Amino acid sequence: MAASKKTKPVAKKTALQSSRMWLMYPPKLIKHPVIWELGHKFAVTTNVRQASVTDEIGIVCLELEGPASELTASVKWLKKLGVNVEPVELSTMES
Fold first, then answer.
1. Bigger pLDDT: 15 or 36?
2. How far apart are CA 64 and CA 52, in angstroms?
3. What share of the chain has pLDDT > 70, as a percent?
4. H/E/C letters for each residue in the chain?
5. Which residue in 14, 76, 25, 82 sits closest to 52, CA to CA?
6. 16-87: which CATH number, 3.30.70.260, 1.10.230.10, 3.40.50.150, 3.40.50.300?
7. Residue 45 neighbours by CB distance under 10 Å
8. What is the pLDDT of residues 43-93, one digit of tens each?
9. Distances from the Cα of 18 to the Cα of 32, 35, 54, 56, 87, angstroms
10. Domains of the chain: which residue ranges?
11. How confident is the model at residue 34 (pLDDT cuts 50, 70, 90)?
12. How many CA atoms lie within 13 Å of 46's alpha carbon, on the beta-carbon side?
């Protein structure tokens, strides 16, 4: 009798999306590891494209990649924290 092979269930691949956004932090969040938490709370990859931080404000251009539902949830979480989130307008040269 031949031994039957057990196969692992095939995981559905979720289409990944990418989004660039500007994050503006209020002073109370300047020293808070927001981007680190974001990458641990949600199934997203974070990529800081540009940043400027002072004692009064933090401005970060962040690229996120992950399933659409995770991108949406992560933006909601950022806004709930008090981070202003705006989409990055790419020029025709960059797109």
1. 36
2. 18
3. 79
4. CCCCCCCCCCCCCCCEEEEEEEEEECHHHCCCCHHHHHHHHCCCEEEEEEEEECCCCEEEEEEEEEEHHHHHHHHHHHHHHCCEEEECCCCCCCC
5. 25
6. 3.30.70.260
7. 12
8. 999 999 999 999 889 999 999 999 999 999 999 999 999 999 999 986 545
9. 24, 16, 28, 29, 12
10. 16-87
11. very high
12. 19
CB neighbour class for 67 (10 Å; exposed up to 12, middle 13-18, buried from 19): middle
Q: Tokens for 46? A: 């974070």
Task: Find where tokens 């002072």 sit.
Answer: 54
pTM recorded for the entire structure: 0.77
Provide the pLDDT for residue 38.
Answer: 96
Question: Residue 52 is encoded by which pair of tokens?
Answer: 């400027």
The first and second tokens of residue 89, run together, are: 């307008």
Residue 32 tokens read as 């808070």
Determine the Cα–Cα distance for residues 6 and 80; give it in Å rounded to an integer: 46
